[in-house]
Design a protein that fits this description.
The structure holds two protein chains of two kinds.
Chain A (H helix, E strand, L loop, with lengths): L1 H31 L2 E2 L6 E2 L4 H9 L1 H32 L4 H9 L6 H11 L5 H8 L12 H25 L3 H9 L4 H12 L1 H17 L2 H6 L7 H10 L4 H26 L2 H7 L2
Antiparallel strand pairs in A: 1-2
Chain B lengths: L1 H39 L18 H4 L5 H34 L5 H12 L3 H14 L7 H25 L4 H8 L4 H30 L2 H6 L6 H11 L3 H43 L4 H6 L1
Helix pairs in contact in B: 3-6, 3-8, 3-10, 4-6, 6-8, 7-8, 8-11
The chains are: A mainly alpha, B mainly alpha.
Chain lengths: 282, 295
């Protein structure tokens, strides 16, 4: 009898913390999103109009957030895969050093990293001039464009893509790839039919870990974007913290969370990855 | 003809090494902003904005802690990170132990509760907590609400890291200790804890890093308390002092050192845990134990 209570004692404090300070606050936000009025005179009256207004007024920012996050996720995947592959199969004694390079950005403050890109992408900087020369920076400007925000998101969330892909590639038994080659598949064929499918769980995990924070981010748009690049995170932040329009901000937060959940569920269905959730929910 | 073969040889070399070349470029890309932060910590900017290179100076390194507001923000961040790390590491480790070692009703729900915060955008978490603190009269925004928030988002990560360490744990070691007469508590204290210590240490480091670097959730729940990232955000409009870069690089060096220490500790623990079977086979096969350990 006593032994059966042990796990509950162990789980107790953490579960209580998460329930009281994560689940219950979501409930309070739900309540707030259905109130009307202003600070001091807020009243709960099932004011669904908050949702209607949130969606109709800020639909551009929603679409923009998902487009930016999607583009950044795709770029991350393209950039991350070769590096993860090289670390897993080709790095040899460089492996630890390369893994260090992947996590090193986390050791500097997120905001300063983002602000460093402001320097790198400033007008007349070498990088901007190079981009201008190859036609990627019309007018010689990068900052305050969609490109700058997507570039910032890509950079900041890249390690979240690299690490899961690396982890899944590293687990692959090299003999499987050998077997493919022994059976007369060419190197690209062996890659496409053995390595790539076996790394799929890493790709699925990486895309989720990149997309979810990117869709809600407002730091990159704040520092690298202009007035025309505001994402939904920026709207929520300013409604909560500058305009004190809590009901609208709460409604927007819920819509954002719901849309991300829907996107994730569709994606997991589509990717059909039991491997990802299976391991987590074991 | 020889020229053509030269070209084709170069082409072949390029194709063979394409992955490595791309990987090298990505590494440069990852490290570029860090190099910029370091470089601009030696900058002597003309105005208030530290965005363009003017000239080299060591002044800001010599007077890294000359800005009281910045120091105070840094101190707040350190205090917050230490407390959040201690609480979340203890609470999270207990949860991980329960999830890996015990089968009980509600385990799936507990797992779900741990995964969900990691799958929620920070802005939503920050907004939800702020709504909660606004509607509940017991809380005033400040250090306490920041601590509550930081512990909340650290717990899940601690659980995941410690759990991965526990899953690869050889339970025979505990059985052996019990066979030799150790009590459950002694077994935990003398066998289990030392072996999962690297996992706990790694989890604590991750929690510390997450807490000290958090901006979004803190932005919502800080009231008038200023942390290091919040100071940077506030300073961005009037121009970020060069000292911020200096302090960022100092923090960077400390984190690298701590990570080196963690890696070293992990290797030591792995050696400790793996020495037994190697000796067994070594002795059993009549090979000197030293030779087996050397392989």
């Amino acid at each position: 009898m006593r032994r059966r209570a042990i796990p509950y004692f162990l789980l107790g404090p953490g579960t209580a913390w998460l329930l009281v300070f994560f689940v219950v606050p979501l409930g309070y936000m739900a309540k707030l999103s259905l109130e009307s009025g202003f600070v001091g005179s807020l009243e709960f009256n099932w004011h669904w109009d908050n949702y209607k207004e949130a969606l109709s007024e800020y639909d551009t920012q929603f679409v923009r957030s998902f487009v930016y996050a999607g583009a950044a996720t795709l770029l991350c995947l393209i950039i991350a895969y070769p590096l993860a592959y090289a670390i897993a199969f080709k790095a040899g004694r460089w492996r630890n050093l390369m893994l260090f390079a992947v996590v090193a950005p986390f050791f500097t403050t997120y905001l300063i990293r983002t602000i460093a890109w402001k320097t790198i992408l400033a007008d007349e900087s070498p990088v901007t001039e190079f981009l201008h020369a190859i036609g990627l920076a019309p007018g010689g400007h990068v900052l305050a464009t969609s490109g700058a925000v997507i570039a910032g998101l890509t950079y900041n969330f890249l390690p979240f893509m690299i690490l899961p892909i690396y982890a899944s590639l590293e687990r692959i038994d090299a003999r499987l790839i050998e077997a493919g080659k022994d059976l007369y598949s060419s190197a690209p064929q062996a890659f496409a039919r053995v390595t790539l499918p076996l790394s799929a769980p890493g790709i699925v995990a990486g895309t989720l870990l990149t997309f979810i924070p990117a869709a809600g981010d407002y730091v990159n748009a704040y520092f690298l974007g202009g007035a025309g690049n505001r994402m939904i995170g920026n709207v929520i932040q300013s409604l909560y913290l500058s305009q004190a329009d809590y009901p609208s901000a709460a409604a927007l937060s819920f819509v954002l969370m719901a849309l991300i959940m829907i996107a994730v569920v569709i994606y997991i269905r589509f990717a059909g990855s039991e491997a990802l959730m299976g391991e987590e929910a074991r | 003809m020889s020229g053509e073969s030269g070209v084709s040889r170069a082409w072949r070399w390029l194709r063979e090494h394409a992955v490595n070349i791309v990987a090298g470029l990505v590494v440069v890309y990852l490290l570029l902003p860090i190099a910029i932060i370091l470089l601009f910590s030696f900058n002597d900017p003309a105005g208030r904005y530290n965005y363009t290179w003017v000239g080299f100076t060591l002044d800001h390194w010599a007077h890294a802690f000359s800005r009281p507001e910045l120091n105070e923000a840094l101190l707040t961040s350190l205090k917050l990170a230490v407390l959040a790390t201690v609480i979340s590491t203890i609470v999270g480790t207990l949860m991980a132990l329960a999830l890996v070692r015990h089968n009980f009703f509600g385990r799936r729900a507990a797992n779900f509760l741990i995964v969900i915060p990691m799958a929620t955008p920070e802005v939503v978490m920050g907004a939800a907590l702020l709504s909660f603190f606004l509607l509940i009269p017991w809380f005033t925004l400040g250090f306490e609400t920041l601590l509550i928030a930081h512990v909340m988002f650290c717990i899940s990560f601690v659980v995941v890291v410690v759990r991965s360490r526990l899953i690869g744990f050889d339970r025979n070691l505990e059985e052996a200790a019990k066979d030799l007469g150790a009590s459950s508590f002694d077994t935990f204290r003398l066998v289990t804890l030392p072996l999962i210590m690297p996992g706990i240490f790694g989890a604590a480091m991750l929690a510390f890093a997450l807490s000290i670097d958090d901006f979004v959730i803190s932005n919502f729940n800080s009231g008038t308390t200023v942390t290091f990232p919040l100071y940077i955000f506030g300073a961005a409009q009037r121009g970020i002092p060069v000292e911020v870069n200096v302090i960022a690089m100092i923090l960077f060096s400390f984190t690298v050192a701590a990570m080196g220490l963690a890696t070293w500790q992990q290797r030591r623990a792995e050696k400790l845990a793996s020495v037994r079977p190697e000796q067994e086979t070594g002795v059993g096969a009549g090979v000197p134990a030293g030779a087996a350990a050397a392989t």
